[in-house]
Amino acid sequence: MRMGPSRKGYVFAGVVLLVGVIAFGAILYLGLRGLSMQRVVVPGSGELALDEPGRYTIYHESRSVVDGRVYDVADVSGLTVELVSVETGESVPLDAPGANTTYDLRGRSGRGVLTFEVDRPGAYRLSADYPARGGPETVLAVGKGLGTRIAMTVAGAIAVGLGSFLLAGAIAVVTFIRRRRAAHANPAPRLT
């Protein structure tokens, strides 16, 4: 007696889906974990080690944690920011960002407030103060290409997750169709 196609296709579809879900999570976790920024508590100053030339963004982290201390400050009106090359002593021009970049990751929320460009890597001193009045301590974070990296990580994770879902669905449908055709081609014998 000839047997029809097995149910192994359903198992394989489940494995494909499970691998896709794991890959989706791994891509998100590893991609977002690698987003490192340097943080400076202000008013005050801190030295940044900028490893490559290019455009950087300064973010105000309205919610942040630095050295175990939680900062939750929404309003930083009147805060002035300055960036100076430690090597040359030259001031680096700061501009308004061209796009509205925000993030909410691992207990930190930030919004791009300034951008700058450096021609060469090196040490730079970031200083900020409220010259006209006192103001709350808050956190400024500096990163390069954060918006693009977040978008690419999320897009990659979605592509892998959606691709595995569609592939698993296709495998399950093909298995179902093959099994149904085999059942119609070889009907079970009837008892009379």
Description of the molecule:
Helix content is 34%, strand content 33%. The strands form two sheets. Strands 1, 3, 4, 6, 7 and 9 form a six-stranded antiparallel β-sheet that branches. Helix 1 runs antiparallel to helix 2. The protein is of the alpha+beta class and 192 residues long. The chain has helices spanning 8-33, 146-185; strands at 38-42, 44-50, 54-66, 69-72, 80-85, 102-105, 108-118, 122-129, 138-143. The chain is built from two helices and nine strands. The mean pLDDT is 86.
Describe the secondary-structure layout.
Layout (H helix, E strand, L loop, with lengths): L7 H26 L4 E5 L1 E7 L3 E13 L2 E4 L7 E6 L16 E4 L2 E11 L3 E8 L8 E6 L2 H40 L7
Antiparallel strand pairs: 1-9, 2-8, 3-4, 3-7, 3-9, 5-8, 6-7
Helix pairs in contact: 1-2
Beta-strand residue percentage: 25-35%
Ranges where pLDDT stays below 50 over 5 or more residues in a row are: none
- Write the element-wise H/E pattern from the N-terminal end onward: HEEEEEEEEEH
Q: Based on the structure, what is the oligomeric state of the protein chains? A: single chain
Helix content: 25-40%
Q: What does the largest sheet look like?
A: 6 strands, antiparallel
Q: Which class best fits the helix and strand makeup?
A: alpha+beta
How many alpha or pi helices? 2
Radius of gyration, in angstroms, nearest whole number: 27 Å
In total, the number of strands is: 9
Q: Give the distance, in angstroms, between the N- and C-terminal Cα atoms.
A: 19 Å
Which descriptor suits the 3D outline?
elongated
Query: What do the pLDDT scores average to?
Result: 86
